[in-house]
Amino acid sequence: MEIKRINKKQAALFYFVVVFLSFLAPSFASHGDSSWPNKKLRLAVPQKSGRFSELVSINPDLRTNTTIISGFCIDVFKAAIAELDYHVDYELIPFVNATGQRNGTYTQLIDQIFFQNYDGAVGDITITANRSLYVDFTLPYTDLGVGMIAPKGSNNMWIFLKPFTTDLWLSSAAFFVFTGFVIWLIERPINDEFQGSMSQQIGIIFWFSFSTLVFAHIEKLRRNLSRFVVIVWVFVVLILTSSYTATLTSMITVQHIQLNSKENYIGYRSDNSPITNTKGVISNLNFKNTNLKSFTSTDDYANALSRGIENGGVSAIIDEIPYIKVFLSKYSADYSMVKTIPNTNGFAFVFRKGCPLVPDLSRAIAKLREDGNLNMMENESLQLLLLPSSTVVGFTKIGMS
């Protein structure tokens, strides 16, 4: 059988085709079919009905007969689109009915994208495993998880001082100094480590006594009497530290129990929809259902927290971190976020399965986060402060927007 050889012209042509396709490969990988970049994307925007408008706001302009869509989520989307190397033609369409009210729940919005009535959605939409079966999400552009809002007085930053009374703190400090002085008095005549200038000797007294608190004293003791004093004192320090740890743990545990007691009520966000009205953002919390109260706005949060459980309010509010940041941008003087748990995956932009825009937008969001532009937009849009975090209560699975 004769083997047909490839001549030089055919080889050159084959090489040219391979090089040409290699240049086109990134474009195919990024944009999919050639008709996609010319398509105008129809992106739904969920209506917040005036609540948490800092995230998404849809306002009709009667003078120009147009609809103004704004908010932090919209700003992030526009900034991510601007980071792309190619132009994307899109239209933001309010997800509302004929009366201007929301046209369904967030789950129904996801269904509309799955059935290709929209190409995607832009707004405060949380990533969930179930939703990922039907649509594609970009990288999250907000903080992950949920948090708890409580009055600042209920989260005393000086709680670490409460296990001991003032008299016990003062007595303990006095005995620390007294023990150091006794050791210095015994060791000074024969031990060079306890000699020197007056300031050095005073320093060694304080250093030696307080170093025993963590059993870190390194000075060598020459006399048995000083060693005996240290043995007794270390035993006392061990009792003090053990008692302090146990008391502090008990105090925090009592706070946990109080928040889940029958007398306490926990608030959560409800969107007043047929599906989410009973649970809101909370699903399977370790609180009794009878102790849960739903609210719809930041003003409702503040009103319920200020009234307290004695006047029909709540002890704390549980919500996703972006909503908590909106609340604290208005009421940070009286309330703080006292707990964060990464139980949710944050907000992201939604597109139909297989949309080639998703990886490109994800890279754009990552670049915005790396450059610090996300934090800058958050501060400008929401006028937020950095949020403190401390331990108050644990809770489990959280439902999402």
UniProtKB/TrEMBL annotation:
Where is the secretion signal located? 1-29
Parts of the chain that traverse the membrane: 168-186, 198-218, 230-254
> Keywords assigned by UniProt?
Glycoprotein, Ion channel, Ion transport, Ligand-gated ion channel, Membrane, Receptor, Signal, Transmembrane, Transmembrane helix, Transport
Kindly list the GO molecular function terms attached to this UniProt entry: ligand-gated monoatomic ion channel activity
The question of whether Transmembrane helix is a record keyword is answered with yes
Zinc: present as a keyword of the record?
no
Q: What is this protein called?
A: Ionotropic glutamate receptor C-terminal domain-containing protein
